[in-house]
Amino acid sequence: MNYDELKKLSDKKFFDSLSIEDLNNYAELLRKYIVKICSKKSTHLASNLGTVEIFLALNKVFDFTNDLFTFDVGHQIYTYKILTGRFDRFPTIREFNGLSGFPDPEESDFDLFKVGHVGCGLPLALGLSAGLNKEESNKVEDKNIEKDESKNKKKPEKQIVTLLGDGALTNGPMLEALNYIANRKNGKIIIILNDNGMSISRTVPSITKKLSLFATKLNIRGSLEQKLKKKGHSVIIESLVKFFRSMKNFILPKQIFEDFGIRYVGPIDGHNIKELIEYFSFAKNFPHTILIHVKTIKGKGFKPAEENPELFHSAPPFNPLTGEVKLSTNTFTNLFGRIIVEKARENKDIYAITAAMKNGCGLDSFEKEYPDRFIDVGIAESLAVSMAAGLAKIGKKPVVCIYSIFLLRAASQVYHDVVLNHLPVFFAIDRSGLVGIDGPTHHGLYIYPFLCGLPDINLFNCGFIEDVESAFSLLGNAKLPVFIQYPKDVANSFYDEIKKMSYEIGDDLKVEYKPFDINKIYGHNESKIAVISVGSSFSICKNAFIKLFKEKIYFNFYYISQVKPFNDSNVNEILSNNQKIIVVDESPSSSYIYQRFNEISSKVKMENNLKINILPFILPDILITHGTREQLFDLIGFSSKELVNLIKRLEK
Ligand SMILES: Cc1ncc(C[n+]2csc(CCOP(=O)(O)OP(=O)(O)O)c2C)c(N)n1
Fold it and tell me: For residue 281, how far is its CA from the centre of ligand 1 (angstroms)?
């Protein structure tokens, strides 16, 4: 079969005519195709290789045009995209103007929600169910599933199906949803638990450990039974079976879920399409909320991904034959990973806390060297922040290592547990600003304005290696919370960038980096325009500077990475030497530095009767799609080209 065959799968009549054997063949073809396309770009390969059979079986049993599907995270739905008419566009996945890597209703009516975070699948399904079931009631009922089963209530018109991973079971909203299910009367949801034993790294155990324990016990039981049978020990077999039955009460996930009023079935082999279809059909006809526990292999069918599912969770481009990947080593993430190890070497009170993002936050070496000071709480961001507050209270030096967008999940804890208590918790905030191809679910834009509004904190928006190093030099002695954000980008040295600029303009810029100050990079006696570049906006300003310099248009160029507390030591000088001041900040709707300049200038203007205009050059508050950072900057006009245009207009 060639890959074009896959296009036929979105024809439901054709799909329904396929035998189990055909579906198995298509599963293999789908996997090969996904590997081929994903090898060229950064994608969630391993998760998608594990869910191929689940989606084929779902399409046999359910009606994608009528039943309602929610996906937790939504990073695992590539097969679903192909089955729902997106084969032709599939090669564009995670490219600018191409398919999203996540569900997206703007892309297809088959996707209900734009999602990309853990913990949304079941809560969203509950909302759908509450809306669909008019008799839905919140009364606490004594749930006796067996008894209710016999009543065989009328099925809802639409089935509501949610697919979630075992990692999701470590997440707060998911557990809140389970708790809610336990307390309600009506409304059926089919929960498919895709258990591959992994989040991105190994899933943080507890509930999920019980799931894998059960599977292990089954295997032990199976192999023991076989061995004993061979030796003819039938009495022993009987007592063993009894023993394992009684053990079930302690270790069975059945118990966990049925305590929440959810009928549990499984675990079943998630790569056996026949079995999946049987169980999904059972679930479809079952009148109450039911969970099908499916065991899958993350990275299934592509050996390098099976052997290293963590690396291939969000894999960079790779060789599709060997699985060889080229990892970049000069990113801000790597830089932070090195810094925190060095700091931990000097100070035994330093702890690193992550919410299941060890690798993404650059903590692999830290975990290896300091396992006792490495805390992975699972996909539980608010817990990570509260625990850090506790650690700081007893004198430890916790660093919460987190992506900007996921820190939003813990905004309340940041304010309530940390800031309100003046605790010197450090936050290493990765993926700030536009993150690129992960798109709107992941852009790290929204915690920054929130942080800017908090009192008594240190906040850094880093654009250089030196910024990150100087911000972390406070670790150990800080008296207040310190938030250090940096983008998903290559980390350059301030001095290297100045050297490159000097080369480009043919002039030797002599600048000394001042860590907590407004750095003056270039000054021109006759220019009355100043550009204040904040952290990650530097390259846009630099490119505009070089372009204009070559056209003999000059502006006074400043750089700052410390946002809070605002260092106003040379603001007056800037205000008295310039009439138009542009503050460039990768922040939506407003910029704290812009506001401070504005406030100070208002006073100065009144007192000295000066004419000064302060202009923000920031991001628009619109939802921004996926693409490379550069493509997105161009799209929204936060680019050197637009900055050049603005300065030329101001020049006139
Ligand atoms: C709130 C939140 N925190 C962290 C992440 C980053 N993340 C993406 S997928 C994933 C692991 C999900 O594990 P699981 O649900 O078991 O799915 P699998 O990839 O193993 O199939 C994590 C932590 C996220 N998307 N959302």
Answer: 28
For residues 475-484, average pLDDT: 96
| Cβ 387 vs Cβ 377: under 8 Å | yes
Of 104, 112, 107, residue with least CA distance to 128 = 112
CATH top-level class for 514-651? alpha beta
pLDDT at 513 over 60: yes
Phi, psi of 457 (to 5 degrees): -135, 165
Closest CA to 373 of 349, 395, 390: 349
In 3D space, the residue among 3, 107, 292 whose CA is nearest the CA of residue 77 turns out to be 107
In the prediction, which pLDDT does 208 show? 60
Which own/partner pairs from 18-24 qualify as long-range (CB within 8 Å, at least 24 positions apart)? Answer: 20/273, 20/274, 20/277, 23/53, 23/56, 23/57, 23/60, 23/273, 24/273
The protein residue whose alpha carbon is closest to atom 25 in ligand 1 is 117
What's the confidence (pLDDT) of residue 133?
A: 72
**Beta 529-534 vs 290-295: how paired, if at all?**
unpaired
> Is 3-199+267-307's fold the same as 332-487's?
yes
Share of the chain above pLDDT 90, in %: 81
Q: For residue 368, give both structure tokens.
A: 């290896």
Rounded average pLDDT over 581-595: 96
Q: Rounded to whole angstroms, how far apart are CA atoms 460 and 516? A: 9
Rounded to an integer, the average pLDDT of 237-255 is 53
* Burial of residue 11, with CB atoms counted within 10 A of its CB: 0-12 exposed, 13-18 middle, 19 or more buried: exposed
| Distance (Å) of CA 454 to CA 381, 416, 419, 451 | 19, 11, 8, 5
Provide residues with CB under 6 Å of ligand 1: 47, 72-73, 75-76, 116-119, 165-168, 194, 196, 198-200, 298, 313, 356, 379, 406, 409
Write the burial class of residue 176 (CB in 10 Å: 0-12 exposed, 13-18 middle, 19+ buried): middle
Cα–Cα distance for residue pair 39/64, rounded to 1 Å:
28
The pair of three-digit structure tokens given for residue 251, joined into one six-digit string: 């270790």
Kindly report which listed range (217-221, 349-353, 470-474, 579-583) carries the lowest average pLDDT score: 217-221
Which protein residue's CA is at the shortest distance from atom 11 of ligand 1? 199
Report the predicted TM-score, pTM, of the whole model to 2 decimal places: 0.91
Topology of 332-487 in CATH? Rossmann fold (3.40.50)
* Nearest CA among 563, 488, 558 for reference residue 523: 558
CATH architecture of 3-199+267-307: 3-Layer(aba) Sandwich (3.40)
- Could you confirm whether 381 is annotated as catalytic? yes
What are the boundaries of each domain within the chain?
A: 3-199+267-307, 332-487, 514-651
Rounded Cα distance, 1 and 323, in Å: 23
Residues 6+ apart with CB under 8 A from 108: 81, 84, 85, 86
Beta-bridged to residue 352, according to DSSP, are 374, 399
Task: Dig out the tokens for 96 from the structure.
Answer: 């600018």
Ligand 1 mean position, distance from CA 73 (Å):
6
Asked if the model's pLDDT at residue 592 lies above 60, the reply is yes
User: What confidence tier does 309 reach under pLDDT thresholds 50, 70, 90?
Assistant: very high
Q: Positive or negative CA dihedral for 587, 389, 441, 197? A: positive
| Tens digit of each residue's pLDDT (9 = 90 or more) over 108-130 | 999 999 999 999 999 999 999 99
